[in-house]
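so i finally got all the pieces together for this one. its two components total, 807 residues if u count the protein bits. some of the lines might not be protein, just check the labels. i wanna see the whole assembly predicted at once instead of chain by chain like last time, that was a mess tbh
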Amino acid sequence: MPEFKMIGGYPEYMRESIKMVEKTRSQRIGKLPTQMTPKEREDVLNLCHPDYVTGGKRSISIGQNKGDIAPNEVIDLLEAYPLIEPGEIDLSEIDYEPDILIIGGGLAGTSAALLANDSGIPAEKILLANKLRHGDANSMMAQGGTQAADRDGDSPVIHYIDAIGGGHYANKPDVVRSLVEDAPKVIKWLCNLGIMFDRDEDGNFKELTGGGTSRRRMHACEDYTGMEELRVLRDEFRNREIPNLEYSPAIELLTDGERVTGAILWNIETEEYKIVRSKAVILATGGFGRLHIRGFPTTNHYGATADGLILAYRVGAKLRDTDTVQYHPTGAAYPQQIIGLLLTEKLRTSGAQPVNKEGEAFVFPLEPRDVEASALIRECYIKDNGIVTPTGMKGIWLDTPLIDTINGKGTTEKAFPAMVRMFNRFGVDMVKDPVLVFPTLHYQNGGVETNPWGKTNVEGLWVAGEVSGGVHGKNRLMGNSTLDCMVFGRRSGVSAAKDVKLNKKRGKLTLEHVKKYIKMLKDNGIKPLRKAPILLPEYRGKAVLARKIDIF
Amino acid sequence: MAKKKLDIMEQIRESNKAVTTGAIDEKDIENWVTIYIMGRAYEVPADLTIMQAMEYAGYRFIRSAGCRAGFCGACATVYRKAGEYKLQTAMACQTRVEDGMYLVQIPFVPAEKAVYDINQESLDLSSLIKYYPELARCVSCNTCTKACPQDLEVMDYIQAAIRGDFKAIAEGSFDCIQCGLCAIRCPAEIVHYHIGQLARRLYGKYGIPEDKNLEKRLEDIGSGKYDEEFKKVMSLSIEKLRAIYVEQQKTREVY
C-alpha cells in the first residue's frame, strides 16, 4: 500500500470528499430522502442484496431440509463429515451428568441457566459448556439496544407488525408473539438484577427507534447494551454457582435413540473429550458470521462458526429461512484495521446520515437493514458514488458530526463511547469527521425451527438465540436479537426444566444418528474432504501455512 | 490480473480477501515492521493490528482472542518497545503494531469474584467492603488507570467506592470490558473490575428510580389486554398484514 499524506487519520485525497460532505451538511438537516415504497425496496433488493443477486447459494442435498436453499458456506458444513469416528468414542464412561446441559454462554445460554434454576433445577444439576470463555459471544458486542413496547402509543401488537413486516411476512407468528409479549418482562427482569439502562432525568427509559421500527422502543446502555446485559446476567450466574466449563465446545450431540440425551465436549486445549449425559440439551451456540458468506467481512465474534446448526441438523432438527443472511448496512470500511466491525444503527437513529462522495444524502437513513444495505451497495457499485480506500475497498460516508449538530455538543461522546474510542485508537475523530462504512455480514436470520418455548422437533433438544430460526423471518430488526436471546433463553430454561421433572425414561447413550449421517453423506456421493463443526475460523498467514509441518 | 470483469459480489469478495481469509499478498505491502512475540522476532505488515499480525506470523488463537472488536477483554496485551523501560497495555484487536514491540498476552486473570445475593444487599459502602476488604488498601498510585486499555479513570472510581459514592463508581466503571489488566498491575491486589460490577448492580437495582410506563404495560399484558388484537392479526393474510404494515410505517415516530 503506497504512503499517503495523512491529515487527521485520512489520506489527503479522501479529505477532498469530506469537504463536500461538510459543505452540504447544514442543508441536509431535517431534509431526509423519503422512505422507499414497497416497489422501490423490492427493486433495490433485487439489484444489490447479496441474497437476491445470483450466485452464492445452492440447495441442500441431504437430510430433512433437502431441497432448501442456503449459502454455499453453510451447505459446505452441512455436507461435511463429523470430527469423530463414532466407533472410537467410549460412551460407557460418563464424565458429567447434569439434568440440563446448555451449550453456549451468551445472553441466550446464560438466561436459560438462570431460568432453569428459577424453575427448580438445582444449580449443581445444570451445566453450561462454552467454546471459549463464558461470555464469549456476539451478545457481548451488541451495541444498539433491546426492543420492548412499553411506552404509551406503542403496544406489543405494533411491535409484532414491525417485526413481521421487516421479516418479509415469513416469520413464524407464534414465536413472534412470544417475543413481543415477553419483551417488557425481560426489561423488568434485567432491572431487578441491577442493569443500568439509559434514562432521562426522571428515571424513565430513554428510548429510540431503529430501522423499520415505527415506535421508539429501543432500550440501550450507551453503545455497550449487550455487554451490560450479559455481564449482569453472567454475574448473577456466578453468584448462583452454576457449574460452567470453558474452552469446551460440543463436537457432537448424543441421543438414546429417541431423544437428545447429552453431548461430547472437547477440551480445546488438551484435546481430551468428555461425555455428558443429560435429560435435556439447550443449544445456544449463536450464528455463522465467521463463515464470511459471499466473502463479506463480519461484525461477529471469533467463535461464530455455525457449530450448533450443524450438530442440530445431524440429530434431525428442522431448519428454516436458511436462504437469507443479514448484512448490516454500516460496517467500518476504513481504516484497514477495523474493516467489517459494527457501527451501531443507533448512530443513524441519533441523526447520522449515509452520504456519497459528492456529499449527497441518497437514502432514508432508517430503512430495514436489508434495504439500507442494498442501497449502499448500489451507490458504490452501480452509481459509482462511493469513496475508494487505500486498500481498494469502496465505502459511503456516515456523517457522524450531525449527531452533535442536531442533539448538542458532547452527545456523541456520551452516547457512543465505544465507537468514539475505537476510531480514536486508529486516529479518526468521528465527532468532527464522517466515518466510512460498507455493509458487513451481521446475522444469521434463519436457523433451527422451534415452538414458542424454544423446543425443536427433536425430543430433548431446545434451541435459543441466533441458532434458532423463525422469529425474524427473512430479516431481523435492530434490537430484536438481544431480545430474542433473552426471551427464548428464558423460555427454553423453563420448558426444559418442566420436561426434566416429568422424569421420562432414558436409554443408553448412542451415536447412531452420526453413523446414519455418515452413511447418508456416502450414499449421496459426498467425498470426505471437509469436517465440521469447524469451531474457529482460519486467519493464519498463507506463507506460514504453506511450510507448516504437523509433528505433535 | 485476468481481464475478466468481476461482478459486484466478486469485487466485494476480492477487496476483503485479507480480512476474511488472512490471504495477504506480500508484494503489495510496502511497509513492514518487526515485532517480538514473546521475544521472538517476526516481520509483519505495518498496517495490521497486533492480533492480525500474530495471525499473519502463524499463531492460531485459542485464548486471548474473543470478539475481535474491543468489547470482550479477551486479548489483554502487555508490551514494551525496544529501548524503553515502560510496560504498556493494549487490546490486541484494537491496536496497530509498531516497530520494536515486545509482546505478551494475558490469557487469564486469577482474580476472586465475591459470591453474593443481590436481594440481600443494599446501596451501602459496607456491601463493598464486606466482599472486597482489600479496597481499603488503595494507595492512590494510579497504576490501574495507566493500565486501563479503555482509558477509564480506574483509580477515581476506586476512590469513589471508598467514599461509598455509588453513582460515581457506576458511571466511572461503566465502560469496563473486564480484561483484568488493572488487577494484574495493582500493588494492593484490588480487583477493580469485580468491585465495579458489584457496585453497578447495586446502583442499577437500588439507586435508580423506576420507569413509569413499564409496570402498567406488564399489567396490561398479564391481564390479556392484547389477546383479541393478537388473535386478529395472527390470522390475517399476507396482503392484509402488508397493508397494516405500510400504514404503520407512515405513522413512524420522529427520532
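The first helix of chain A runs from residue 12 to 28.
Chain A has a mean pLDDT of 96.
anyway lmk what u think
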